[in-house]
Amino acid sequence: MILTGKTVLLTGGTNGIGRELVFQLRTKGATVITTGRNPERVAAMRADGFEVIEADLSNAAGVDALLAAVAGRPIDVLLNNAGQLVDHDFRKGLPDADAADGAIYANLNAPIRLTTGLIEVLRARPESVIVNVTSGLAISPAARQPVYCATKSGLRFYTLALREQLKGTGIKVIEALPPVVDTQMNDDNSMKKMPAAECARQIVDAIEKDRDEANIGMTKALRIAESISPALARSVTLRF
């Protein structure tokens, strides 16, 4: 897809990978509508000239409010990037089940609900794209992040099935699978991290080159290991 002149709805664009995506997509000539929850970050992005809709995607009301805010807009790209990481490690104590509910909704239910709500808008465009940002951990889980891994794995399988359903419709479905990226979400992770700008660059590149998947950074090696032996891949990721 040539991004010049396209309108992109990108969730979670005030921080991390999303913020880098917003700037890079604008450089490509796209009009970007993004979302955020933190008032200070929302204000900062608006000061940089971006349209930002305050939206909490951890519940149905927040997603529906976002859909209402973009009603009637000619959206060419839906980029489901927003995600939440929740502490859910029984080795540390009893996890907060309510916190898990919000993360499950933001990571899995929200992309499904947004796709459903915007599918006819996307069908009406000459060409359109749905991009779901999952994770290398959608392939093989990390023991310390079971809820995050479960939601990203769920979104991966949703994406695979959705791509098959939409064959021949003019809607391209892309999955982006980042590795550990240098964002606030991973501040307590001691692993080597990919710069967020580079991760965003590879996602944009996948959109421009009409790829089905963007296996980014170390996710490429994980995909190879998983194809040879799923048990081998799990033995690596479960330690983290």
Q: Mind telling me which CATH architecture this is?
A: 3-Layer(aba) Sandwich
The residue-averaged pLDDT reads: 92
Task: Give the CA-CA distance, first to last residue.
Answer: 36 Å
CATH class: Alpha Beta
Structural class, by secondary structure, is alpha/beta
Rg, alpha carbons? 17 Å
Q: Describe the biggest sheet?
A: 7 strands, parallel
Q: Which fold name corresponds to the CATH topology? A: Rossmann fold
Describe the structure.
The chain has 240 residues and is an alpha/beta fold. Helix 6 (196-208) links the parallel strand 6 and strand 7. A 7-stranded parallel sheet has the order 3-2-1-4-5-6-7, sandwiched between helices. Helix 1 (16-27) packs across helix 6 and helix 7 (219-228) crosses helix 8 (230-237). The protein has 8 helices and 7 strands. It has one domain: NAD(P)-binding Rossmann-like Domain (Rossmann fold). It has helices spanning 16-27, 39-47, 60-69, 97-123, 146-165, 196-208, 219-228, 230-237; strands spanning 7-10, 31-36, 51-54, 77-80, 128-133, 171-177, 213-215. Helix content is 45%, strand content 14%.
Sum this structure up briefly.
This protein has 240 residues and is of the alpha/beta class.
Topology:
Blueprint: E1 7-10, H1 16-27, E2 31-36, H2 39-47, E3 51-54, H3 60-69, E4 77-80, H4 97-123, E5 128-133, H5 146-165, E6 171-177, H6 196-208, E7 213-215, H7 219-228, H8 230-237
Parallel strand pairs: 1-2, 1-4, 2-3, 4-5, 5-6, 6-7
Helix pairs in contact: 1-6, 3-4, 4-5, 7-8
Features:
single chain, 240 residues, alpha/beta, Rossmann fold, 7-stranded parallel beta sheet, 8 helices, 45% helix, globular
